[in-house]
Design goal:
Two copies of one chain form a homodimer.
Chain A: E1 5-6, H1 9-31, E2 36-42, H2 46-61, E3 65-71, H3 77-89, E4 95-98, H4 108-113, H5 126-134, H6 142-153, E5 162-166, H7 173-182, E6 186-190, H8 197-202, E7 206-209, E8 227-230, H9 243-246, E9 252-253, H10 261-280
Parallel strand pairs in A: 1-9, 2-3, 2-4, 5-6, 5-7, 7-8, 8-9
Chain lengths: ~280, ~280
């Protein structure tokens, strides 16, 4: 029994961050201004605090300034929208990251839409979703964007291949499918209401699992030779794919951790520098 | 051999237009203002002139005022955007229809984005695409919206069923798939780069053909008992589905003409009245 080759997101992300750091340094030297990412955090959810800290640390290593905007847990949607509009209008900020999910009292969509599309480096606005969907220039959602980079890195051309995306969230499943479609894959969206998930997944040359249900996709569901992208994460470093059985059927597979995960922040940093370059005219 | 039942778009559209006319009359009586659709036409392409005339005639029969804005063929994108922004800001206009496709010198996307989302009754803006995709309130693209109404009318619940959309245009295939996904179908997008279209279509409980290639889908590609929606149109009243063979396999099928076609204008009128009701506060 052969084993799939691992898609090493850690190594690819490192290289992207190194290249991004060089570009950031170049922008800083030429303009006197470092690329700046505003990180907006509502409340003190421990996981969110950790994510934001990781992102800010990674910014630092890449020569990107981060401006942290912590807001109290009882911030209203109106106040949050006001803050995001100010940051959108602030020429010293090139990219905006609004950490989410937020509390149920926040209208998340209203908040996202207060981010100017040209600063939407996390790819959460309607405009970003549409440009991804229509194959137009714009920012991508970071995890789906990272998935496409991984496929490119490992020479997987989606054109003409069957891709099955399991999951349909606004920032992961849906845009991942749209990016694959823009690259000419034949794309199927599966989800919790899909009646025969195994049958659908077995059609796939490329599987993207993005639901956050531990080991939902088993090896027997994987078409021999398929490319398996596990974008799921559950506590204990468990993905949406049963790695041990899937690795025996796939040709390429992402490990968890070290597959899709590192690509998300790398894409965020890269897009922040893209945004800064455009806004600073370099 | 049994034959599929026909999905009569003409009858359903007529009923929707009648209901819309009642609502338009009610709005006019209560506010003193009739719902108003601005129709913007660049140049004098005969087909476009005909389409706009049809839409305006239909508005008239439904008690909707139409304000026609004909622009010369050499109108620039900038001028068109200016006109659309004025109409977006004009409180006397409740909905805006920009007839397309336009000449290649026009940046169609820039023009669409100049339409205020609350007046985008043709469902062409990024915002409308995103709200369709995320199952949020907003206007739908008229043809996909009409398709969903036809499915509802004939008791077809997409939840848990395999839907295959052939075509991925911004105003037809892509939003049709997103609307089906929002209604819990397992959705596959096929297109010109799909390697085995017949195999993919044979998986479908619901087929939406939306490419404009005469008789692309043949009866042998239709799963017995499937619902077949033909949103294609080619000269000579030819759809994307080979009707004569498909009618013998499907359980429900739209004729061409008289299936999807009439639903498009009906949806446009209905959404214009929705827009007017919201803007006039009734």
């Amino acid at each position: 029994m052969t084993q799939a080759r691992l898609m090493d997101g850690t190594a690819l992300a490192r290289r992207i961050v190194e290249e991004t750091a060089k570009r950031a340094a170049d922008i800083t030297e030429r303009t006197g201004t470092a690329p700046c990412l505003a990180t907006v955090l509502v409340g003190e959810d421990p996981a969110s605090v950790t994510y934001v800290r990781m992102k800010r640390n990674r910014c630092r290593t890449a020569g990107i300034t981060s401006r942290h905007v912590p807001l109290p847990a009882d911030t209203t949607t109106e106040q949050l929208v006001g803050t995001l509009r100010e940051l959108s209008a602030d020429p010293g900020v090139h990219g905006i990251l609004l950490q989410h999910p937020m509390g149920p009292h926040i209208d998340e969509r209203a908040a996202f839409e207060a981010i100017a599309p040209e600063k939407d480096v996390d790819g959460v606005t309607f405009a970003s979703f549409a440009t991804m969907s229509f194959g137009l220039p714009g920012f991508v959602s970071c995890t789906p964007g990272g998935i496409m980079r991984l496929l490119d890195e490992y020479g997987v051309d989606p054109a003409g291949r069957r891709a099955v995306v399991v999951g349909r969230s606004a920032i992961l499943g849906k845009p991942a499918g749209m990016l694959l479609l823009a690259r000419d894959a034949t794309v199927t969206y599966c989800h919790s209401r899909t009646t025969d998930l195994s049958a659908a997944v077995r059609e796939a040359d490329i599987v993207v699992a993005a639901v956050g249900r531990p080991r939902l996709i088993r090896g027997q569901d994987v078409k021999p030779g398929a490319v398996v992208i596990d974008a799921g994460y559950s506590p204990g470093n468990v993905g949406d794919v049963d790695f041990d059985s899937a690795v025996k059927r796939a040709s390429l597979i992402t490990p968890v951790p070290g597959g899709v995960g590192p690509m998300t922040i790398a894409t965020l940093l890269e897009q922040t520098v893209d945004a800064a370059a455009r806004q600073l005219g370099v």
